[in-house]
Write a structure and sequence with these properties.
six-stranded mixed beta sheet; about 600 residues; transmembrane helix; alpha/beta; 10 strands; elongated; ATP-binding; ATP binding; ABC transporter transmembrane region fold; Antibiotic ABC transporter ATP-binding protein; four-stranded antiparallel beta sheet
Length: about 600
Amino acid sequence: MKKIIHQLLPFIKRFKGHVFLNIFFNLLYALFSSLAFVSLIPMLNVLFDKTTIVKEAPVWTGISGIKDYSQNLLNYKVSGFLENGNAQMALVIVIAIVISTFILKNLFGYFAMQHVMYLKNGVLTALRKDMYEKIIQLPLGFYSKRQKGDVMARILGDINEMQNSFFIVLELVVREPLTIIFSLILMFTISWELSLFVLCFIPLAGFMISRIGKSLKSTSLKAQQESGKLISIVEESLTGLKIVKSYNAESIFRNKFTRSADNILKLSNKIGLKNNLAGPVSEVLGIATIAVLLWYGGKLVLIDKVIEGTTFIAFMGLAYAILTPAKAISKASYRVKNGMAAADRVFEILHEENNLKDSPNAKDLDTFHDKISVENISFKYENDLVLKNFSIQVPKGKTIALVGQSGSGKSTIANLVTRFYDVNEGQIKIDGINIKDITKKSLRDLMGLVTQDSILFNDSIKNNILLGKPDASTEEIIDALKIANAWEFVKELPEGIETNVGDAGNNFSGGQKQRLSIARAVLKNPPIMILDEATSALDTESERLVQVALENMMKNRTSIVIAHRLSTIQNADEIVVMQRGEIVEQGTHNELLAKNGTYKRLVDMQSFD
């Protein structure tokens, strides 16, 4: 708990004004909550004719005598009306005091809740923003070992769980303890014997509740992890729905979902059973306390006559004022266990170390003048090397193609040049500068990436293309679409460039999506273009249209082409043939064909997998 609070402090400090105001109004709320029950004593005294008659106005003797002064002043005023036979007016005065006290109590309570609401919602929004910022900053390697659904569950479900459970502490941490403290002070001024009876039961209640809730946090953590798994199953099912249906695999995914949902049900029931115990346990302990108070207090009133019956009724009200917040705190302690488990998962992401940060002396590189140098690099994702002592030069204005079978390391080069990953050995340089010494933003500003999977976002064509250049004009967008061979079909759409592409661009064919992706890269107009198997997923007709678009885009531009099909690379300035992370052949299309080696064999197979 202490650790979580410490981690939350930087977020809470952003809203310290609301913290101070919440404490201030809760202080007043707690004070008037206690005074509300004490204010019943004068009313009950008037009703039961127990008012102490005071005939002389009391004299103010200082702050230390405020209790006696207030009591005598009220009795003096009420006594005047009672002696004049105006008991009704005396009753109006004491009732007005009761009503005013309760109104002030609720008014201050309202103000306190307003400020804790601003604090709670502000902190949660700040957490969400920081978490999303962290999620998009973390390198791709972080997500290769995690389910997307689990990350989504943390930013959505776990933060909501913090709101619903852990953040209830912000509402209770000041108000309820202060209510208990003020009530106890007033109770001890009325009767220290009765007060000790109440105090005996509070530690007992706390002990019993803590014993019941001990294992709640670990159960909550398991439930939240299972929720992440469930979201992953849903995400995978929707993403691969065509495959699921075409293979009649609905039952397989239904069973996976059902097992996960049933696990969540069991864990949720386990958590619920323990949560539900908080109320009854504190209620039973409260009733036991009241029963003891009634027995012992009745003895003090009826037999020992050391306390007035009217005062005892007010004391019972104060005892209730202690038991209610004590019950709220005990319930909250259960819910906090859930929130702590959720907070652990949220802060695990927030504290995740980004191993691809810009170096302290990294500089911006605004232009590209000479060449890209890949010098003796070796790289592995986990255990086995994907690239071994690999070197190539990409001069400005030239097109270098990488070909080879699956697993040869072609796409890894694209990942390393764009610095999605860092090399294990060797270095990659642009114009003689190691890319580790260049800011990632300026490095990627120099590059345009077109991947095999045409990644489009559920937005308009216009906004998808503007990702490359947010301030581009409509004319520039249309020019980019023309170069990408996409304007032909976009202009026929009823809403033109304002047409929504649908989820993952599913309103369009594969070839159309790829041409829109190319238009996005064209609009960005970077000096370096990286094409990662940009036509491999297309049919022949779509490939022809996309190939024309690619050729248009690659004119007078430095390009690294990761090739799947011969048509993409036969005009390249240099073709690099790769096998198991190493270069086996290098040269132009005709030179490599003449060698009658690996490249010739791949051409004959017409497959660069």
